[in-house]
Design goal:
single chain, four-stranded antiparallel beta sheet, 126 residues, 0% helix, seven-stranded mixed beta sheet, 49% strand, mainly beta
């Protein structure tokens, strides 16, 4: 099992930027792909983006494509979510998660992820 801790959330005005970090411990970080999800009040947890084990492959939800960027530093056991041009509809709790074993392809369902962080609140004011 791996432990994940997110940080970097906060309050920002529309059009601003934030960077979330997710630090992993407990397993070899480079051994698993990662994803970011978000959940707004009263809504289901939704896919934001994915990054492969090496960081060479990324995939994003249409709603954030061109605005959000996922990177990782395997030497620091950390994955990042850079969020630019933020909109009020980006307001949510953001979670990082590890892709479960034996998963094929790029999973967008939260059921394909097995370890989760505690979440980081991002609030975008208009």
């Amino acid at each position: 099992q791996v432990q994940l801790v997110e940080s970097g959330g906060g309050l920002v005005q529309a059009g601003g930027s934030l960077r979330l970090s997710c630090v992993a411990s407990g397993r070899t970080f480079s051994g698993f792909a990662m994803g970011w999800f978000r959940q707004a009040p009263g809504k289901e947890r939704g896919f934001v983006g994915y990054i492969s084990r090496s960081g060479g492959n990324t995939y994003y939800a249409d709603s954030v494509k061109g605005r959000f960027t996922i990177t990782r530093d395997n030497a620091k056991n950390t994955v990042y979510l850079q969020m630019n041009s933020l909109k009020p509809e980006d307001t949510a709790v953001y979670y990082c998660a590890t892709v479960g074993p034996n998963t094929i392809g790029i999973p967008t369902s939260p059921h394909a992820y097995d370890s989760w962080g505690q979440g980081a609140q991002v609030t975008v004011s208009s």
